[in-house]
Amino acid sequence: xxxxxxxxxxxxxxxxxxxxxxxxxxxxxxxxxxxxxxxxxxxxxxxxxxxxxxxxxxxxxxxxxxxxxxxxxxxxxxxxxxxxxxxxxxxxxxxxxxxxxxxxxxxxxxxxxxxxxxxxxxxxxxxxxxxxxxxxxxxxxxxxxxxxxxxxxxxxxxxxxxxxxxxxxxxxxxxxxxxxxxxxxxxxxxxxxxxxxxxxxxxxxxxxxxxxxxxxxxxxxxxxxxxxxxxxxxxxxxxxxxxxxxxxxxxxxxxxxxxxxxxxxxxxxxxxxxxxxxxxxxxxxxxxxxxxxxxxxxxxxxxxxxxxxxxxxxxxxxxxxxxxxxxxxxxxxxxxxxxxxxxxxxxxxxxxxxxxxxxxxxxxxxxxxxxxxxxxxxxxxxxxxxxxxxxxxxxxxxxxxxxxxxxxxxxxxxxxxxxxxxxxxxxxxxxxxxxxxxxxxxxxxxxxxxxxxxxxxxxxxxxxxxxxxxxxxxxxxxxxxxxxxxxxxxxxxxxxxxxxxxxxxxxxxxxxxxxxxxxxxxxxxxxxxxxxxxxxxxxxxxxxxxxxxxxxxxxxxxxxxxxxxxxxxxxxxxxxxxxxxxxxxxxxxxxxxxxxxxxxxxxxxxxxxxxxxxxxxxxxxxxxxxxxxxxxxxxxxxxxxxxxxxxxxxxxxxxxxxxxxxxxxxxxxxxxxxxxxxxxxxxxxxxxxxxxxxxxxxxxxxxxxxxxxxxxxxxxxxxxxxxxxxxxxxxxxxxxxxxxxxxxxxxxxxxxxxxxxxxxxxxxxxxxxxxxxxxxxxxxxxxxxxxxxxxxxxxxxxxxxxxxxxxxxxxxxxxxxxxxxxxxxxxxxxxxxxxxxxxxxxxxxxxxxxxxxxxxxxxxxxxx
Length: 864
Known about the structure:
The protein has 864 residues and is an alpha+beta fold. 56% of the residues lie in helices and 6% in strands. The protein is built from 33 helices and 11 strands. The radius of gyration is 33 Å and the shape is globular. The chain starts with a helix and ends in a 14-residue tail after the last helix. The chain crosses the membrane at residues 336-355.
């Protein structure tokens, strides 16, 4: 542990201050939130937020902290870590925060073993935060990929039935998840599934950014989710759970609800050769009914049907699997589609704001793309094909619905070609079609799955010699992975061998060696927590392995005995604490007892909280004595030896130092120094150039006897009310080092600037000029002479000149002048903008003079 501290490596999250590269969108490690939570490394980022690994410094336990940061609506100010909404999206961003906080407030009411627990929620840095239990586990998607992309029905039900129990409690409060999928179910090492990431905030962000990708998952989402006015209820989550169960047992998602309604048939699992009972097959098909009225209305009914407690009609499968040719239903769907298309189109027109192109131009391009499609000019010839035309439309209007639908139509065209070639046994041609489709839409799941099937089929067709050589290479690779203790990778490689040659004799032997290696690793570990980690990992792969099960049982028995002993020590420490035997006498004090507990269980919460209580007691004792500064300092030092980052002791320490300094100034002689005990060194100053301590200060404590008086650097973020901040103190740690960067900047500075340049370029490509302007300004704050940023601002000015010229040609002089002013903010000496500005002002003056009845009153305000 001490070696990790000296090397700058955090034992909690793995943060290495010597190797970490700052990211402009993420909070810096060691950022303190709510004076309680220390930010560690980011765990992941989605469309509307970032999740970090964190430490609750009061309870001394790991937590997961989700920050509301929708990249489509806002960015981060690198100078003070605040979230800054983009100008046109300020109201949408604020409303999104309220949905985020309300979601956290609602989830915090639930205490269910299969729902992630919300510990706290609050607003800070002009955004919202949600603190959750940190759960170590794997996503269900990873588990599925390890089992040939599907599970036996028993294992699948073990995943879905607990989730239905959790949803029953949530639905009782009229809360609906709306985003159930493989990615939102976490599997604990015990095998228990946990439902995470409710979609309320994501849904509202998706609506305001007109991005259906944020609120829909094709295959999981029922028809009502495709409309902003769809009737959402328990049946919505039931459809998603049915799709999830269908995927788990068949290895493929149901077709999108819109495709099914348009005529594509849902094939029942039994028809695919899946070994399940007719009752379960019928329950799944009923959950996936297109019409809300045809589905189960409660998750309790769905669960009962899966368990055979409700008799279903045998006609259910045939009815639900049909495409839905009912005339009325089709007409209802057409109305829904019309509403969706109309709503999205209107939102798109509003969202284009000042950079919206001429509508007649878009219509002309759409007509051109349709003609190219009819002439079979799909992606060829270069410069005259439907794909390039649709891309041209999306460059002008990124959310243009018909262009997006056109791109999807092209991808499905290549999917159909691939399937036709597959049926004709032309596997190489089929793979070529798949690659063409994936170049257009890399994440299109049907093509991804088809590609895997074809690759396996081609592998089976390989000549015997080529296959034998491939198997030999895989076996050698697996042996090396096993030698390097890359057990997970070795297991997957041996499975790949069995896929190519099911009767291979060496692969099963290698898999047995992996199981034995888990046993050896567990036996070689001294700490029970690490032993249990290897045992659980082994049992995930080999649930019936006798040696692993025996080790688990033995460890469980020993842990029970140890738990009883620790409970006795906790009670003893509490008695010593009550008797104020804090760190003395030796052999009978609370500090030594808590340290003994931590040696046995390093993360024991009561022991870590006990150390904080000892420090609290020393703070109270130091505050009682109002006369003797030397005694107060001695008590403070004892408390800091126990808990170096105690905010109260640090604040009191600072106060006493200021008192001492005032006395020295008043007396102008070293008389005060004689008042102090010479053996009591002065505490360290509050601001230190040394790096902040790592996330686990308790583990830095030495065993008894107590160490020498502690001298540790202190974070100014811990004492905002005491440290007199200078302007540069407002910068995060990384930003302070960057603010003075010159052309010969450090590699870390260079990396941050390069990342910001990439982000600015992405903003420009997406026509988000306000965001690009702000990002270029951030770069110039870091490196004032950065040529790339200056060139970027000049290019922004050029974009504004083109937009202003377009509006001028259309006769919209007011908007044209507004765009000119925006461009001049980015590049004040742009000659084209200045010339155009004079022309527009002249035309406005002529227009004002000619309009006697209603003079024009113009107010020009930039939106940056």
